[in-house]
Amino acid sequence: MLLRLIFFIVFTLIKSDFSLLNHPCSNRGNQLKNMTDCVCMEGYLTYPKNSKKKCNYEIKSMKIAVFLSFFLGLLGADMFYLGHNLRGFVKFSLPILFLTLGLIYRNRIENKKLYYLSLIVPIVLLLFSWIYDILMISSGYLRDSNEIELIK
pTM, whole model, 2 decimals? Predict the structure, then answer.
């Protein structure tokens, strides 16, 4: 039974991949009468414009980006979703770096005010960055890595 299910899933994936290769609109649009242009479905476009594959790019959703930014923004999930991988990696690694350094140097700093200041400043900067990204995504100023506007 399990083997039959695996064969069905693999066959379905292979079949769908071949149908995408044969269809000029990548099964995400309707071919026009001149047989060269496509009208893409909502949420898809041709990127880059001169690409042979039509309707090949899925436009990122603003709702998903805001959701990811609100709940997982401190870990950079919103930036990874939008394709800003370096910025996402920095947002992911900074909280881990600050937490690690704070735990390592907790007993080595003799001045406790300096220790607490060294913890508070990064936390405030991370929170500012988190709120800034939520506002930039929800207002539409932040686009994906290909400079394409997010779909609402």
Answer: 0.72
